[in-house]
Specification:
The structure is a homodimer.
Chain A lengths: L1 H13 L9 E3 L4 E9 L11 H19 L2 E11 L5 H15 L4 E9 L4 E9 L16 E4 L5 H10 L6 H8 L5 H10 L5 E4 L4 H12 L2 E5 L15 H7 L6 E5 L7 E7 L3 E6 L2 E5 L1 H7 L3 H4 L2
Parallel strand pairs in A: 3-4, 8-11
Antiparallel strand pairs in A: 1-2, 2-5, 3-5, 6-9, 6-10, 7-9, 8-10, 11-12
Chain lengths: 304, 304
Amino acid sequence: MKEKEFISIIKNTLKSEYIGDDCAYLKDLGIVVTQDSLVEDVHFLRKKITPFQLGYKSVMVNISDIAASGAEPKYLTVSLSLPQDIDNKFIEEFYEGCKKACSESIKIVGGDITGGDKIFISVCAIGSTAGRKISSRKNAKVGHKIIVSGLHGSSGAGLKLLLEEKNKPEKFIKAHLEPKAQVEFGKNIAITVKQDYAMMDTSDGLMDALSIIANESGVLLDIDFDKIPHDKDLEQFENWQNLVLFGGEDYQIVAAVAQDCPFGAVIGEVKEGLGVNLKINGTVEHFTKEDVENKIFNHWENNK
Amino acid sequence: MKEKEFISIIKNTLKSEYIGDDCAYLKDLGIVVTQDSLVEDVHFLRKKITPFQLGYKSVMVNISDIAASGAEPKYLTVSLSLPQDIDNKFIEEFYEGCKKACSESIKIVGGDITGGDKIFISVCAIGSTAGRKISSRKNAKVGHKIIVSGLHGSSGAGLKLLLEEKNKPEKFIKAHLEPKAQVEFGKNIAITVKQDYAMMDTSDGLMDALSIIANESGVLLDIDFDKIPHDKDLEQFENWQNLVLFGGEDYQIVAAVAQDCPFGAVIGEVKEGLGVNLKINGTVEHFTKEDVENKIFNHWENNK
């Protein structure tokens, strides 16, 4: 848990009110901003991902954070550090991937490129808040319903297949390598909700997102596993329920919104208490913040 | 020159009108944005810089780019990739350095932290364009005067001393390790100029900046070396004129502005032609774009 320890040191040092959500909401400028990095051998293996997929993913990760804030993704900057053996073709395909992830209305407007021992990618994304109500993890209220934008577990299954050198079912591999940020879903919520709401993407896993919303808002999320949308073919995988809950990188959106919100699949409700109650396999399991942190895939410790 | 080759591929792939200046000017949002990275063993050696200085410099580099665009530096995000042997003290001191570089009105509002083999820092900075006229490298016009905000060569001298394991004169080492972005200078220009102007910082060296402005604007810059402000003690260094011209990392500002601009030290004038004419040691030397590119310190090739 070194990463979380470091973040708490950063918070104490900077005493910034902004650090907490994936995006910082800069009200005076009418924008949100987020930055995320992908490091070779930590977040990806060069042999397991094409330059196109790497560019695509680097950009999509950040667009997803903007979408989950409720803002409209607009601009990105891309910073690249590359080893000497990278050739022109890599660069070209990488940026083709970036472009593909961007859609018409999102533009890459800058960044830099430097040398390095390994591939390091850091993308900064900016979204416009005009006409949008912006979310916060702290906004879940008792009585809210919990909704998700789509399927969970597919990306985790894809990663599993890739690590086992398998290439089928292709849909899972595609879900892992070319996830799609839920831009329309985020927009629908942000332009229709009237009251405060909590929303984030499930890049680090559904349970991670649920636990963060619960603990940042000081509430209990009552979740019914059977209501979480997942691909039926996932059930062939060993520990498939873990993939749904902890798999991560599906880049779906989870939100705690007022009951009258017409979007998403309802998977539970906000109650008084703290943490997550998960109804699964006929029992109810309680997850504290620590329980969830100990089960999730941690980039820091699993890869070094 | 692999870096420049890559940038041209990126430009061709993205077909973005934004890539060119250090900052992208996003008119619809009233902001400029820039991103710059510092990589261990490419831009700095861990043994030669303290965590405080590293944090300070990472932030200052980006504030300097915003200042040189004419915008008001407002917000930053900081992305860090860190090896396992980095301890809490490093993080604390690094962010103390970041904070020190920020001043009251500039805030760090986000970023992320991940594992990695080497230290990799990527900072994104956002500036507000309200009440400012924003610069572009393409704006130098015949008849403009060329001005600089302050001393050149001190930082390069400091780097030289550090590499030779010397620690005096301290002023040069400080100039290298704790450069100061010319925020006030940038502001003065941007709130007073009436006509288009060209401005950039001299982070990659004064000649590099002059050459870029000349070539992007399609003009000749006529420069008098004797008018370039430099510390007199610099003259003790071997090839000290090279330090002034190519040393880099002074983070001063150079601009091509109308004759009535009351700020800065005048070092030359914009004429018809292309490139840079440098009056030095009693002769006039002409520098094409390629001449300058071949003389400047190139992070890519010198360090790998």
